[in-house]
Specification:
This protein is an alpha+beta fold. The protein is 37% helix and 19% strand. The protein has 2 domains: 41 residues, Arc Repressor Mutant, subunit A; 82 residues, Lrp/AsnC effector binding domain/regulation of amino acid metabolism (RAM) domain (Alpha-Beta Plaits, 2-Layer Sandwich), CATH 3.30.70.920. It starts with 5 loop residues before the first helix and ends in an 18-residue tail after the last strand.
């Protein structure tokens, strides 16, 4: 666990479940004083274990009613083009998560848009103009059964 002990793990688990928990309550849960708990939380933040705090947002409730898993194969595997594609994906607000993967595809992304026309627009106006994609496949999400972590904050589309 990269230098984390059992108490650190309890702190992280508690914050994953309830990110807005008070330090007083967190200290009671993990069995430490408030100052020791705060010190540990700050250390976990500084070390990068805790990278931030965010609200969990349901995409449909903020104008993103269509979620799609997209898989991409790039035309070229040279490092510059792979890096360019990755940077572009990080910059698109429609992209909730993106991973470079091994196997049949080069990247897998979780996309959230308003509807099918918005997806078409994202593909035609954002992805295709990159000139990097050889092949892409899309799978529409019928229902998200589990969200392992909160998605990026979404701005409702007008």
């Amino acid at each position: 666990m990269n230098g984390m002990d059992a108490i650190d793990a309890k702190i992280v688990r508690s914050l994953l479940t309830e990110g807005r928990i008070t330090n007083t309550r967190l200290a009671r849960q993990v069995g430490l004083s408030e100052s020791a708990t705060l010190e540990r939380v700050r250390r976990l933040e500084t070390s990068g274990v805790i990278q931030g705090y965010a609200a969990r947002i349901e995409p449909r409730q903020v104008g993103r009613g269509l979620e799609v898993i997209m898989a991409f194969t790039l035309r070229n595997q040279n490092p510059a083009e792979v890096a360019r594609f990755g940077a572009a994906m990080v910059g698109f607000e429609e992209v909730l998560d993106c991973a470079q993967v091994l196997g049949r595809f080069d990247f897998i992304a979780h996309i959230a848009v308003r509807d099918v026309p918005a997806l078409e627009n994202f593909i035609n106006e954002s992805l295709i103009p990159l000139g990097l994609i050889d092949r892409m496949e899309s799978l529409a999400v019928l229902k998200m059964l589990k969200r392992a972590h909160p998605p990026l904050p979404l701005v409702a589309e007008s």
